[in-house]
Design brief:
homodimer, 384 residues, alpha/beta, Peroxisomal Thiolase, Chain A, domain 1, 2 domains, 9-stranded mixed sheet, two-stranded antiparallel ribbon, 14 helices, 11 strands
């Protein structure tokens, strides 16, 4: 297996983009990544997308995306793992380059969600849970994460305020992200007084419905050196699954797929959690970020809330999480999120994350999760 | 890259299976493949499915499929390329084993289509075409292939009877396939008198709406030898795309993605069309099989119709096509089709294709196509 580098990244603004279609979004991000990388051709591409079928009535997305990108004829593959679709595209692109099958591979993610009505989007997102045994009973994603939050509060004493602090921290970071959907600060009091969605989660605990796309160009490290590009290596990858139903897990507060995917990536990279300078993780709800930091091994079980409260996850903290603003502030176009995490890492490593820069970052990790945690993809990157 | 073998296959009956759900179908085929292979564990899996979202309201399919297969925690990836989703799962599984990333990989395909009403299924299938620029105008898949058929007839003199002969030949083969949806013979006269769908295509020119699943187990050839399994090697793979819209192609009768994907597979396998003992190809409509045989290089452009008429594609012909009965007689659960083709090749190589056996077959090729030809995946297999 060859060493793989990320040599270019591109992204669209995230938001309610009524004047841009699914194909526009993907093409915009992909062209930006190609331009950023300086390569004049790509040999293969992967498109992460959760549900272009349900959101805009379009499947066969990889062929369409290649065609509109002016790349018809190359192999183009769509992958889906609900909200972890982007991370999965990254992993398969990595595998294709590492294996030697192709040299220059584009990995992208896209979702066009706001063309749906609210109930349609809620139904679409619900298909990441078990349609027959969970959604049938009327539960939606805020409901599933509310169950996790309530269990975490009961078991570990996590407070309502600590949950709010996740959102406050991510909005503080996102306020300096020019592509964020909600680039402004909020307060703990503001979160606590926001509209109740699924007790104990309020609207400001939830990531939004978003349109957007992101893309990256991968190639062998040897080629990146010849191109004179800064070397940002993929040094670890992990992918694991768990029960699709939340109720099937021994402990609903524990994200086993995240734990396993992280373990794989740490082992491959020969790194431990304390070696990682910052993290981009899947804060689809405030409680998710707390559970994720526990599963990644950054804190002991149940200690996520206090860690947030102590400022450990802030940009200047012990283990900065989501300098981009995370899904909460930046937005969550589900299929794009995993690649948007890679975009942030490259910007940080290049010192281009103005206003939200993590100082002297050399090693960083992404964690991208599907559904209520039934799938997770992780990557570790290193700047030479 | 390591040599890869297929060591086990499984399939469900194809048909209108109202008593089996999406997850039941996948699990049934996957367990059969695992059982057939003799391995006691798999390390990773790929699930090809076109649109579980639109057909049954379930995304995040790979995690769900792993869970219900009793394989929670392993990496599980869903891929989609419309009706070529199964072939794509095969290709990625091949890549994972060839690269050395994992040794024992399950590749499967599934589609549960008959829970939809007719119009819903037609809409779902239509999402393999360009929703904004083709479907918007009211065209459906029989309409797109009818345009191809009409152009082929005008340009090359292909006759209505020659189209019918494709269906007659495939039903003759499928009559001996115990898993076929329509295991009975039909006549040219029967096709010509069947209900008109989209002129010139009639109902008996069209593959049906089908529920079903298929799966295969891949591992390195070295491991297959240690397991004492018959060696069925993957010696070539190809994947290419074309314009999503039929009207964007210079010649609507020419399947460029099939031509390119076949060229890649032939080159990798170091084989030419005449070296291949039989083919399993994507006859979603009778005209498709004719265009495919031209793009695969079995006959010159425009000569597909006369080749069928001359019996060259029959089991005892010069280049047998679809001994399984093809999509027409066997059925076409879209995401499963590409893996069902692999199933047939393994059964033929093992001499287990009773009543439809191709004699002395050692080398065979699959061609699995998405939409009106915007994506194609090909594989070449060799029996040692």
């Amino acid at each position: 297996m060859r060493d793989v580098a990320v040599i270019g990244v591109g992204i669209t603004p995230f938001g309610e983009l009524w004047n841009k279609s699914l194909r526009n979004l993907f093409t915009e991000a992909a062209l930006a990544a190609i331009d950023d990388s300086g390569v004049d051709r790509i040999q293969s591409m992967y498109v992460g997308c959760m549900s272009s079928g349900l959101f805009v009535g379009q499947e066969h997305l990889a062929a369409l995306a290649a065609d509109y990108l002016g790349q018809r004829h190359i192999p183009s593959t769509r992958v889906e793992s609900a909200c972890a679709s982007g991370g999965l595209a990254m992993r398969l692109g990595y595998m294709e380059v590492a294996s030697g099958m192709n040299d220059v591979v584009l990995v992208g993610g896209v979702e066009k969600m706001t063309d749906s009505t609210g109930p349609e989007a809620t139904f679409g997102l619900g298909t990441a849970a078990d349609q027959e045994y969970e959604c049938y009973h009327g539960i939606t994603f805020p409901g599933l994460y509310a169950l996790i939050a309530r269990a975490h509060m009961e078991k570990y004493g996590t407070t309502r305020e600590q949950l709010a602090m996740v959102a406050v921290k991510n909005h503080k970071n996102g306020a300096n992200n020019p592509n964020a959907q909600y680039p402004f600060e909020i307060t703990v009091d503001g979160v606590l007084k926001s509209v109740m969605i699924a007790d104990p989660l309020r609207i400001l605990d939830c990531s939004p419905i978003t349109d957007g796309a992101a893309a990256a160009i991968l190639c062998p490290v040897d080629m990146a050196k010849k191109l004179g590009k800064p070397i940002i290596k993929v040094i670890g990858t992990g992918h694991a699954t768990d029960t699709i139903q939340l109720c099937d897990r021994d402990d609903p507060t524990w994200l086993e797929a995240t734990y396993l995917a992280a373990k794989q990536a740490y082992a491959m990279a020969d790194k431990k959690p304390s070696d990682i300078d910052f993290f981009e993780v899947h804060d689809c709800f405030t409680i998710a970020e707390i559970c994720v930091m526990e599963a990644l091994g950054l804190v002991d079980k149940g200690k996520g809330g206090p860690a947030v409260e102590a400022g450990k996850t802030a940009i200047e903290g012990k283990f900065p999480i989501n300098p981009s603003g995370g899904l909460k502030s930046k937005g969550h176009p589900v299929g794009a999120t995993g690649i948007a995490q890679v975009y942030e890492i490259v910007k940080q490593f290049r010192g281009e994350a103005e206003g939200r820069q993590v100082k002297n970052a050399r090693i960083a990790m992404t964690q991208n999760m599907g559904g209520s945690g039934a799938s997770t993809v992780t990557h570790i990157f290193e700047r030479e």
